[in-house]
Amino acid sequence: xxxxxxxxxxxxxxxxxxxxxxxxxxxxxxxxxxxxxxxxxxxxxxxxxxxxxxxxxxxxxxxxxxxxxxxxxxxxxxxxxxxxxxxxxx
Length: 90
Fold this sequence. Notes:
Radius of gyration: 13 Å
CATH superfamily: ACP-like
Order of helices and strands: HHHH
Mean pLDDT: 90
Strand content: under 5%
CATH architecture: Orthogonal Bundle
CATH topology: Non-ribosomal Peptide Synthetase Peptidyl Carrier Protein, Chain A
Number of helices: 4
Low-confidence stretches: 84-90
Number of domains: 1
Helix content: 40-55%
Number of strands: 0
Distance between the termini: 19 Å
Shape: globular
């Protein structure tokens, strides 16, 4: 999955939790919860939705690292196979 694919998946998942979200207004470097006004339960539902879509475990200890849209996409990119990369067979 490319960076843009991951970003689109994050935004689509966010829109499931907060349908009023306008993707064109989202800024990569601004705290996402403030942009979309998500409470802690919505945030948890959002993270579970990302796990369900991408099959990436997001342990609670990492929640504090996931502040901005850019943080989320980078975190997921590091844990998701990228296009054009071969599987290591592990």
